[in-house]
Amino acid sequence: MALQVGDKAPEILGINQDGIEIKLSDFAGKKVVLYFYPKDNTPGCTAQACSLRDGYDDLRKAGYEVIGVSADSVSSHQKFIAKQNLPFQLIADTEKKLSGQFGTWGEKSMYGRQYMGMFRTTFIINENGIIERIISPKEVNTKSHAQQIL
User: Fold this and answer.
1) Is 44 inside any structural domain?
2) What is the pLDDT of residue 75?
3) Per-residue confidence at 110, pLDDT binned at 50, 70, 90?
4) Which residue of 3, 22, 113, 122 has the smallest Cβ count within 10 Å?
5) Alpha carbon of 107 to those of 15, 82, 118, 150: distances in Å?
6) Count of domains forming the chain
């Protein structure tokens, strides 16, 4: 069962691009924008990451910390961060543990082909670790995602 608005987010989020375990308690007193995206260096995911990068200062001023999550590897995340100059952490959810808890990993279809993949979904977690808003795959606007959150 996927996490819903009102649920407590898990304490252990995963391993970031530097191989460091990230915990929700690392961001005590801040709201967390936990955004799940399909793949590093693809057009939609790059647009979304760049929107969050460009709006990062405004998000921080509003009390948010941004964390991206995909099933890509640590090294893929390192390259994506360097190439796009991203100021926030990316979690390498290679085992799909976090995406499984949040219900963002599942069967997708494109051009009639079925495959497993990440649903582009953003969770806004309040200062107490409670999910207060979910921006679903149909609602996410990759080009203006930072403004959408604010």
Assistant:
1) yes
2) 97
3) confident
4) 113
5) 24, 30, 9, 30
6) 1
Which CATH number goes with the domain that contains 83?
Answer: 3.40.30.10
Mark whether 45 is an active-site residue: yes
Q: Quote the tokens at residue 16.
A: 């970031």
* 80 is a domain residue: yes
Range of the domain at 115: 12-149
Does residue 104 form part of some domain?
yes
Model pTM greater than 0.90?
yes
The active-site residue, picked from 32, 45, 98, 149, is 45
Q: Hey, which bits of 17-130 come out as E strands?
A: 21-23, 31-36, 64-70, 89-92, 105-110, 113-118, 121-125
Question: Is residue 32 a part of any domain in this protein?
Answer: yes
Distance in angstroms (rounded) separating the CA atoms of residues 31 and 90: 16
| Token output for 85 | 């100059």
Q: pLDDT tens digits, residue range 3-44? A: 999 999 999 999 999 999 999 999 999 999 999 999 999 999
